[in-house]
Amino acid sequence: IDALPPSQSDDLTTRARHLLEAIAKDDPSLATDIVFPRDAYVAAKDAADPGKQWDDKVASAFQKQVHLLHKRTSGIERAQLTGFELGLPISQVVPKKHDMKVSLWRVRHSRLSFTIDGKLARLDLGELMSWRGAWYVLEMK
Predict the structure, then answer these.
(1) In what helix (H) or strand (E) does residue 113 lie, and over which residues does it extend?
(2) What is the pTM for the complete model shown?
(3) Cα–Cα distance for residue pair 96/65, rounded to 1 Å
(4) Which residues, in sequence order, are bridge partners of residue 116?
(5) CB distance 23 to 76 below 8 Å
(6) Over the stretch 74-123, which tens digit does the pLDDT of each residue have?
C-alpha cells in the first residue's frame, strides 16, 4: 500500500480524457481504465461479496453516470478536455469494518474541465481512490 498519495500525472490526465470521450460518445467502455479496478476492490473492500458489490455499486453506477452525463450535457459530443484537477484534501482511509480493510488514499470532488464550443464546463468526480500509485474513480456524481 502506498505510503504517500499519488500525485497528478500525465497518465491520470490521459485517463481523464478517456472519461470525457466516453461521456461524449455515450460509451462507458472507452473509460474502463479510470474506474477503480475490480481486483483491487476485491482485495481492499471488507464485504461479504466484494466482487458483486463492485459490479453493483462501482461498475453499474459508473455506466449509469456516463449515460446520464451524455444525456444531460448539451453539445457534449464537441467537448474538448482543458484539464483535470485533483480535489483537496487528500486523506488516508483508515481500515474499518464494512469499508476498506487496507489503508488507501481518497480524494473527493476532483474536477474534469472541458470546453464545448469555447464555453468552459466542469464535471465533479465524487470520489477517487488510489491503488498501486494511481488514482481511480470510485464514484461519480
Answers:
(1) strand 105-116
(2) 0.93
(3) 28
(4) 119
(5) yes
(6) 999 999 999 999 999 999 998 999 889 999 999 999 999 999 999 999 99
